Amino acid sequence: MNNPLFYAKILLFGEYGIIEDSQGLTLPYSFYKGTLKFSDLDNDFEKKSNQSLEKYSNYLSELELPSDYQLDVKSFQSDIAKGLFFDSNIPQGYGVGSSGALVAAIFEKYSLIKRNPETISKDELKDLKVIFGRLESYFHGKSSGIDPLICFMNLPILIESKESVDKVSIPKEELGKGAIFLIDSGVTGETGPMIQIFFEKLKNEGFRKTLKEEFIRYNNACIDAFLKKDMNPFFRNLKKLSVWAYEHFRPMIPENLFNVWKKGLDSNAYYLKLCGSGGGGYILGFAKDYAKAEEMLEGFHKEVIYRF
Asked: Structural domain tally of the chain?
């Protein structure tokens, strides 16, 4: 059974903001991946995954989807009985789309109408995002559908607004001094509680105002400058974004990263931001001189995801 691989995703910009209609920019991340496989289920990981798929298939059997997006749930359940599991090294609770890759893999294999990511139109992307949101909501209570969409498309995606997404080209990587990197906080984050905190904060008019007038403005400016490869305004807005998050997203920043977050802002050697919902998992780092940042962040496990 030769099944395609589904990569993890990284939401470079847009965490929380996309809930309030900011732009977002996401990239596939091939370091982590997953694929559907059959086995005799003779180890705990495979057994657990198979049981999870069975529970999920029950959810799918009761989910009503439009005719163009129907899944062959009976085949899925029959394969689960034959030992189907999701073989994945994507860490859960790290903000890199573990459930997104699973949903994308199931959709690719069991959707009655097959779709080629290369030929999907902007209108279809919009519909797919809605469908994926419904498929993934089983895991998070509520899902925008963005994670599975990126995992399915395996292309960078620009989230233009709540309604509109499009495929996008990002500047070609260069082996320069600069880098975008992940820092492992060493603790798992849970999406649900973090989103709950965010919605509580949204009830405060002052927070809503600063989110719209500052966070979203800096976030969108970062995306615009990054896509144009205009690095001076990019880092200028990135610093403002990092300061804003340090002040307003404190509950989402893992405790062991408070001080290094501030150290980056004070020294301008690197800037940190949330990767996904925060609370644990990965944090994103950006540095014009990665060697210097790496030295200052000694003791933390880091992974470079993009060089410039």
From this structure: 2
Whole-angstrom distance, CA of residue 257 vs CA of residue 249: 12
Q: Is 213 exposed, middle or buried (0-12, 13-18, 19+ CB in 10 A)?
A: exposed
Q: Per this entry, what is the length of the chain?
A: 308
- Count Cβ atoms within 10 A of the Cβ of residue 248 and give its class: 0-12 exposed, 13-18 middle, 19 or more buried: middle
Q: Is the pLDDT of residue 17 over 50?
A: yes
**Measured distance CA(199)–CA(35) in Å, rounded:** 34
Q: Considering the entire predicted model, what is its pTM? A: 0.84
The tokens 């993934």 sit on which residue?
Answer: 136
∠ Cα 105 108 109 (to 5°): 85
Same domain, 23 and 162: yes
Per-residue pLDDT tens digits for 29-41: 888 999 999 999 9
For residue 89, give the 3-state DSSP assignment: coil
Query: 144, 156, 304, 145: which is closest to 227 by C-alpha?
Result: 156
Same domain, 18 and 128: yes
Query: Residue 55 belongs to what domain range?
Result: 6-167
Report the SS3 class of residue 171.
Answer: coil
Are residues 160 and 113 part of one domain? Answer: yes
